Amino acid sequence: MATSTMSPQPVPDPLSMHAASGASSSSVPPPPTAPGGTPSILEEVAAAQRHLRSRLAGALTKPPPGVAVAALPSVPLIDIGPSFDGTLESRKQVASQIREACLTTGFFQISNHGVSAAAMAGVLKQAERFFHELSEPKKQAMHIKHSALFRGYEPHDYTYVNPDDMAGAAPQQETKEGFNWGYEEALDPTGGDGAYVELDGSRPSAAGATATTTANGNVWPAEEDLPGFHAAIATYYGQVLQLARHLFRLFALSLGLDETYFDGLMTHPGGIARLLYYAAQPAVEVEVEVEDESKKGADEGEGDTDGHEEAAKLGLGAHTDYECFTLLLSSTNPGLEILFPPSAVSDNKPIWRPCPVRPGTLTVNVADFLMRWTNGLYKSTIHRVMSKPGAGERYSVPFFFSINYDGEVAPLPERSVGESLFVPLKAGEYILERLKATKLLEEREKEKP
Ligand SMILES: O=C(O)CCC(=O)C(=O)O
Fold it and tell me: Residue ranges under compositional bias (Basic and acidic residues) (predicted)?
């Protein structure tokens, strides 16, 4: 996958709470087209891939000599509990913290988000059962190659998101295995509005449904094979979908818009979700340098300079997400890494930093469609998963939130994001083009001798 490509414009903070919150020109790629023109999606994708390559080529994996880990950027934690207290003032205060994170890291973690501990534990437990208890033939019967919509089981070597990762080394197989499904009215606590369409604008057809395939093309293990699996997925999905809608209202506020601004665009949203499994890697003996105390991790999960980087396997290659934003639940094993943009503290080079492990929280990251919609103001940040020796297995459940795939996307008001640089287009069209471009890149890579 690739990063999106847009140039930020200096716009005032419409919330007037963070006067210093300007867009950082260092963290987004340069404009991809001739002055005066708007880039085509293909130009955007090509520029995005160039940007990704250049970022990866110069990226640090350790702090520069003499720089303490605590001085490096990290992922902020936002308590969104107050946004549920019923007052607009509280929601605006949370929105202003979200704004700050979106302008800088593009990543933040949220606590007191309303998704129950039972729902989170339930879906992670089912992920473990799916990958360990379901027989290989049953998983293969749900292989994503049988699905035009990439739904179902994805073996670890079937796709890889970025052949450019690992700084020019030969492309590695990723360690991840996946199980993918998408939005269904039956999974939406609101029941939806009966108007869901797929990425290409087509209406899901009930004719395609079988005992293990639902109308929207989702594929599920038979109940007798994994009792309780579907129920646990439905519980978690319903809660995280409602949270995503709540968060998108906060995003609207964070852009100085009315909080209901996006409501009409999330009545039948795109919401692809995955169970991901990263197998444990055997521990290896490495010479560990004795570290200066001051360089130790300032946050949970940040003690990363342990000498295991070289032996680490690529779990999921460097990429950005395509939709509006992602809500990620993960087990407590680390592995997610974020490519922070160049800054003075990292010798003006991009630097990989581990995402903190904060149990009970969800990690949120801005994705490319929202970055594009906000003219690059909100950052869609490159990330990947590394499976380090001895770190144990990791499970995660990303939920990729998109507005209605058929929603007409008008430019956001200039007072919020400046003059629009991009052709307006539907979210489904955009995501489909990005997926097609990724597929092309992947195929080209596989054809290389
Ligand atoms: O597994 C994780 O922690 C991250 C997953 C991810 O980045 C993705 O699915 O896009």
Answer: 293-309
